[in-house]
Amino acid sequence: MKIVTEVFLDEVKLKVTDYRENVICDPISKKELHHIAIEFKVTSEEYHKVTTLLYEQNFNVKVPLTKLEFRGTIANYSTSITNLYKEDEVGIFKLELMEMR
Questions:
Q1: Is there a contact between 22 and 7 (Cβ–Cβ < 8 Å)?
Q2: Distances from the Cα of 12 to the Cαs of 23, 28, 52, 82, 98, in angstroms?
Q3: Which segment of 7-11, 38-42, 56-60, 80-84 scores lowest on mean pLDDT?
Q4: pLDDT digit string (tens) for 16-27?
Q5: pTM reported for the whole predicted model
Q6: Spatial contact of 19 and 2, defined as CB atoms under 8 Å apart
Q7: Which of 43, 68, 74, 95 satisfies CB 3.0 to 4.6 Å to 63 for a cystine?
Q8: Nearest to residue 96, comparing CAs of 26, 7, 1, 11?
Q9: How many helical (H) and strand (E) elements, i.e. helices and strands, does the chain have?
Q10: Which residue from 32, 56, 52, 42 is spatially nearest to 84, judged by alpha carbons?
């Protein structure tokens, strides 16, 4: 398994510290859909940009190393800290993205 170090949501590059990828069968369409789970660090300086991006919910997802590309939506999201407005703070964001039908 290759170690993925970056994932793009639309044109925004995220430097990931953990990456998992699998395929899930949609129970309705029976289509195989990509699902990825990533972790990445967000500094207080990046906080506003990243959270504003995540409010969009749907993205063009690109994983250059594996050449995976799909239109995805947030399936799950969490963060280790809810207020990164304090200078020099760093939070860990966990994000799961599911390919849209």
A1: no
A2: 24, 32, 12, 21, 18
A3: 80-84
A4: 999 999 999 998
A5: 0.90
A6: no
A7: 68
A8: 7
A9: 1, 6
A10: 42
